[in-house]
Design brief:
By secondary structure, the chain is mainly alpha-helical. The protein contains six helices and two strands; from the N terminus they run H-H-H-H-E-H-H-E. It has a single domain, classed as Arp2/3 complex 21 kDa subunit ARPC3 (Orthogonal Bundle), CATH 1.10.1760.
Length: 173
Amino acid sequence: MTRLQIGRATRWGVLFAALVILQVVFAPLLALWGVTPDFVLVGLLFLAALEGRLPAVLTGFSTGIVLDIAAGEVIGLSALAKTLAGFTAGFQFQPHLEGQRIRPVIFMLYAAGVSVLHNLIFLLSYFRSLNISLLSLLFSHCFGAALYHTFIAAIVLLIISRRKQGIAMEARP
């Protein structure tokens, strides 16, 4: 690895450590109708868009394990969900471009789709133990959470594009 790659990896590592802390400490305070935001998932979307599939998969797995341990969940469930989310989000990465660009419309579609996939993994693993109808779970905890995550991703995308800190934006796909 070159110094530049080590520096970028370190910045992403510090960012994801902060996102994990934010997720564990502050996400429960921001719950809307029982749906909490997933800051790590939003970070994975940006990582996959800018760095590619492999960094997103490795980061998704490692942050998922940490979140499983911190939350006392079934070890590996968050790791599986975040790994698959990183893999799926990595399809938007275009390595043949010199300067990777985030196209806002495509990014938001990926954010919604990846969030639905991520939430379905949790939904299907806990469905039998809950006394709620599947339709209610789909709309509140799958699609509702996807809308919440996509909204957060849109806010972050707007803030970053205003500051112009390292993310090149493209107006049209």
